[in-house]
Amino acid sequence: MAYKKALAAAAGMILATAAHAQAAGSNIVSLGWFRVMPNSSSDPLFVNSVGGAPVNQSVPNTGAKIKEADTVGLAFTHFFTDNVAVELVGGLPPRHKIEGTGSFSGYGEIGSAKQWSPAVLAKWYFFSADSKFRPYVGAGLNYTWFSDEKITSSAFQNQVLGRGTPGSKSNVTTDSSLNPVLNVGATYAITKDWFVGLSVSYLPLKTTAKIDTTLINGVHIQSEAKIKINPVVTFLNVGYRF
Question: What does residue 68 show for φ and ψ, rounded to 5 degrees?
Fold first, then answer.
């Protein structure tokens, strides 16, 4: 009978551990798939100067939009209480294709850039720590910057930025920004240590792309485009508690 009592006690301990897999003090690492879906629009291309002389003129019926992108996401979550957690989230930077709109639409893809968007979120989990299904809401801050920005259409480069002059080159830079993040989602416990999760986030994000074009004769043309990105981001993931 002693061994039966020992087995029952061990089973009770296992069940108790499984029942509090997302309790105060728990740490969870999640790996999964980010889908970044911009709701983008832009102001017309604005020419600041040509050869150092101010122009300050917009080009009517021009614009650009940011296309969707996929990447690998990684998150670390710590539970301070059974219901309150803080999450650090990031991932491999997705490369966004940029397409022309208005009179630029005929060029198709005109550029691309990589987006870096780490974030920290405070999250409130509903239900008790022993619930398998736990929805949550969250809010936090995101810092976004871009890298490897470039013009990818030679026709757009020569005909628009180079003003019909072959052999021009352009350097593109973008602003970085600190942005709020709104987040909703849920996790489902498969075992005491393994989880699956899905979240949806929204970022009110905008940037200014600054373009320095050098013509073949050495003349510089400075122009810019203000772009609203405002992405909705989904994160389908698998998590492990340790």
Answer: -65, 155
Q: What is the C-alpha to C-alpha distance for residues 168 and 219, in angstroms, rounded to an integer? A: 10
Residue pair 109/153 in contact by the 8 Å Cβ criterion: yes
At 61-119, the pLDDT tens digits run 999 999 999 999 999 999 999 999 999 999 999 999 999 999 999 999 999 999 999 99
Q: For residue 201, which amino acid is it? A: S
Task: Give the pairing type, strands 62-66 and 95-102.
Answer: antiparallel
Residue ranges of domains in the chain? 23-241
Choose the CATH number for 23-241 among 3.20.20.140, 3.40.50.300, 2.40.160.20, 3.40.640.10.
2.40.160.20
Q: Where does 53-167 have alpha helices with state H?
A: 154-156
Reduce the DSSP state of residue 89 to 3 states and report it. strand
The rounded Cα 212 to chain-centroid distance in angstroms is 26
